[in-house]
Specification:
By secondary structure, this protein is an alpha/beta fold. The chain has a single domain, classed as Rossmann fold, CATH 3.40.50.1580. Helix content is about 35%, strand content about 25%. Strands 1, 2, 3, 4, 5, 6, 7, 8, 9, 10 and 11 form an eleven-stranded mixed beta sheet that branches. The longest helix is centred in the last third of the chain and has 26 residues. It is globular, with a radius of gyration of 17 Å.
Length: about 240
């Protein structure tokens, strides 16, 4: 039986790209909020891009829930792995999502019979220090992100079920991600072209590495989107 809309929530435009393509989403504006609308079979779907970090995630999901009465929220996108051996584009379905600032824990709604494992750590600070990563491993953390806990908290406040489908795009401890790399994205998730140009000028030898990182991020975004779309069919 067809029910209300399912909402996909992404932090960055590149995470929305495979959803918009595969579901033929059309951009529109509802009460000042940019929303992408479409359908999966008979089920209406909507999608938004919030921007990066907990504050923008909280504001984005609040605006969406004010504008559209959704039945289920699915957080979709990329995430960082704690283990250097983790294959890129591995799907992440955490058992628990932890808010780094408050310690608050959130448990996603399970869809279908997919296996859930580990903890996802949501915070606004880039973590690459080996000792910090080891401490998180000891807590059962397998993935790092900057939005999911904030989205979960807003959904739970309104009794809206939520789930998360992310995939690994990088590894926090292998030296590929640092403050300079992180600065190459604007807070809204778009590329910071000035920072990118400056980075290339300082580190021309790292152009192949950045090309690989872009390829890895695309593969992860595609994997997460495909899994999230399939999940809608099980709701």
């Amino acid at each position: 039986m067809t029910t209300g809309p399912v909402a996909f929530v992404c932090a960055m435009p590149m995470e929305l790209t495979p959803l918009a393509r595969d579901l033929q989403l059309v951009e529109t504006t509802v009460d000042g909020t940019t929303i992408h609308r479409g359908a999966f079979g008979d089920r209406e779907v909507v999608a938004i891009v919030t921007g990066m970090g907990t504050a923008l995630a909280r504001a984005g999901i609040t605006a969406l829930l004010d504008a559209v009465a959704v039945d289920h929220v699915i957080v979709v996108g990329i995430t960082g792995a704690l283990e250097n051996e983790t294959p890129i584009a591995t799907l992440v379905l955490p058992e628990v999502v932890v808010d780094a600032a408050s310690g608050r824990e959130h448990r996603p709604t399970r869809i279908g019979d997919a296996d859930h494992r580990g903890r996802m750590w949501t915070g606004d600070v880039l973590i690459t220090d080996a000792a910090e990563l080891a401490a998180l491993r000891a807590l059962g953390v397998i993935a790092l992100d900057m939005e999911t806990a904030a989205i979960a908290h807003a959904c739970e406040a309104r009794s809206v079920p939520w789930s998360v489908y992310r995939a690994f795009s990088d590894r926090a401890g292998d030296g590929t991600v640092d403050a300079e790399i992180f600065a190459m994205s604007n807070q809204d998730g778009t590329p910071n072209h000035e920072a990118i140009t400056a980075y290339f000028e300082r580190h021309p030898e790292k152009i192949p590495m950045l090309a690989q990182m872009a390829e890895d991020s695309t593969a992860a975004a595609e994997r997460a989107a495909a899994a999230a779309i399939a999940a809608v069919g099980e709701l």
